[in-house]
């Protein structure tokens, strides 16, 4: 077995720069390198990779797929491409790299970590396609040396693709052990056993070349590395294996929906495959607060099948490279930081005290100094001489004030509610909107900044097109068409589509609902083809059917299909706000062009993305703008980019109108949540509000009803997850304030509380500061220049 050089000046220097130790034993079992932000994570990982390549020419490397490696790919390819650049030389010298020793990337052997089974390697969502596009091509690797997992060609019969053997993409691994019941199952059994043999031979090849020398991976929502999901044997080898719900949910967007990914199996190298060579360098990347719990579980637990990455603790060369957000739950690091702070910000103090109360299931006013001393972070507060009694009294009063603020009647206010996607506003703070709209002196406008087409499945569009075909055969269609109902300029008819659908809901008539949906779908197709001729419409419908029949789920759609899917989402949002009496003229579909459906999307541009938002703000002149506000690398990338577009547009607006007073309300929904200490407005949610959210979601968001692209946290529709989050937030504050505060409160809305919604209330400068901070944590800034 080859002996690799895993020593690293890069890690030593970067760990020293971080201000933390590599490992805080005995709590931490694996070394950790903490960096401030997502771009820095990719940058330092790239430099470490280059260092390893210099020391281990011709070695074996395994690199990950997905979004996490974005900055790693950028920096590695940039360094290799511009090796002679003086800025590159300066960068490498900072970490003691030998500038005269450029790695010969053609000498390295690339080993693929995992792949869906079966999947056509020519498809854009295959990992092979990703590897060829981003690693072999960009890094200049030798494709002939690459060990790639072909899960599409039968080893027994190379002329047969596995799509023919598994026509629905479902694989029943019980065929390994049971008798097949028909010829199709017999072929499938033979193929599964052939692929088991293929996996064993793949493993053998890795062992013959001395194992993996440099492994870079992400960590999944259940803590998986590769596709070694929770419960995987630490002595596992390359194999076919099913995946769990969390992994299927994370893969749903790649494969075209949970309906497809849930039934998928995968081929993956095993945990023992990864850890086989004791001299290998194994780096796990994790960015953002949403990864904090899986990082904690992997780093702080002894080897356990519940936490697959704990297997890495036996290797000297293993290290977690994480952002500050992802390291948030590594307790000893948090304690060190608190001790070194001259003063602890009030928000951090409140977070610590609330967390202790919730952990002990004790009211705030019953906490004692002993309770705080029993907690590592709480003991720091005591050591710093904090007046615990006064702190708790102040915190209790502050929380009550925030709740009272959430029940306050607001009037004479113009709101611009913004969302990255069409259901984000609803899932974030619909219970507050229900109350805000009751005051007629308020005005409300709703803007969705992207078209959201990636969250509509092919199957859903096909179902709607079939209903449209039936509608076109009816006399009702001919009568409406003759009256000019589908004329693109007929805005009255466009609004009638919406109210006709809601009339169908009120009458419990699926027939009326289907007819209204077909009217709008027809209107959308006319808009796309710019032709009302029935022959042209039918040709386009046939074109759509052919497209979906010949396209594979998860593929990046062509523009007309993107447009149609986006229009379906826009229709759904119009149905939602019509519940509250808002018409077409109060709803804005921005369709910002940065939203492309690519795995790595560009930043919002001034003319194309920011100026339209500026124009909208100028048109409405709002007093309050709401913004989805997720922390770095948490939630969809779209949320972050929409926030930056709004921040840039608002800044332009205030430069032009300095006299205007604007507040910004930040909200979160199903992707991440505010801690109570971060919230400024806490809105009580009643059973009535929960019922409205659930009913309206299921009535309006037909494309989302089946939860085809769910959160890994919850196996069900987003409205149910939103309710769970609101209920959990209420449970936290019920512990802190005591149930009597809610049950015996003189305010009926507070007595009726069964959930809570949290919002941040900011002036523009606070918002701009948050946006700048997120930008620093998320975007690469360099002096060398982005390559094409």
UniProtKB/TrEMBL annotation:
It comes from candidate division TA06 bacterium ADurb.Bin131. InterPro entries: GlcN6P_deaminase-like (IPR052960), Glucosamine6P_isomerase_CS (IPR018321), LmbE-like_dom_sf (IPR024078), NagB/RpiA_transferase-like (IPR037171). PANTHER family: GLUCOSAMINE-6-PHOSPHATE DEAMINASE-LIKE PROTEIN BT_0258-RELATED (PTHR42892), GLUCOSAMINE-6-PHOSPHATE ISOMERASE (PTHR42892:SF1). One of its GO terms (biological process) is N-acetylglucosamine metabolic process. Keywords: Hydrolase. Its EC number is 3.5.99.6. The lineage of its organism: Bacteria, Bacteria division TA06. GO terms for molecular function: glucosamine-6-phosphate deaminase activity. This is Glucosamine-6-phosphate deaminase 1.
